[in-house]
Input
Amino acid sequence: MNYRIAPSILAADFARLGEEVAAVTAAGADLIHFDVMDNHYVPNLSFGPMVCSAIKPHTMLPIDVHLMVEPVDGMIQAFIAAGADIITFHPEASRHVHRSLALIKDAGLQAGLVLNPASPIYLLENVLEQLDMVLLMSVNPGFGGQKFIPATLDKIRRVRQLLDAYQAESGRRIALEIDGGISPTNIAAAAQAGADTFVAGSAIFGQADYVAVITEMRAQLAAISR
Ligand code: DX5
Ligand code: ZN
Output
């Protein structure tokens, strides 16, 4: 299994953002998770496309943009121009989900939908063809450092089943990313349930040694067999 670790720079030191991005890149991360909050769709404000362009030269890793904004289409266009590689958004925040996904796909980027803890899985069903990734929230969006909601494990299993069934008929694998409260202590449980991409903010940036945390996460993943 090809697992990916995606440090969320929401938990980084913003005064030294370029260095922080370079440090997690050197520490063995696979993606840079970029949390965009607008104080409208979520009750917090983070950073936008200008910051995305600014960090781009500090890493060769794909930038995984998680849009927590409403409306989404204008920001999709801005992040395409800013060098995003993957863009995910919350279906509740888009009036026309198929159109928003098409905007991302037509630009040659990878696209995904994000499900909140209370969002139903059926939101994915009619757009599977357009998806490269599904992002499952294991906390309510808006803040780093929250506690993993245990019921998410069962939801990971159910989404994995849907994605596996789609892969069986289409031959195309859709990644399943989990976001919120992930640490070395629960990453294996999330992987066993069917997640393959793991966002971690405070668990990585809250420690002095990023290599040690990422290595520990990889060791936890290597120890499971699914
Ligand atoms: C929450 C964000 C997460 C968050 C993760 O709205 O989408 O990516 O930064 O932070 P931790 O790993 O600290 O829960
Ligand atoms: Zn996120």
